[in-house]
Amino acid sequence: MIQAIVFLPLIGAVLAGLIAIFGAHARHPGDLLAAAIEENVKINVKRMYDDVPILSEALAAKKIAVVGGVYDLATGRVGLL
Question: pTM score > 0.90 for this model?
Answer without folding.
Answer: no
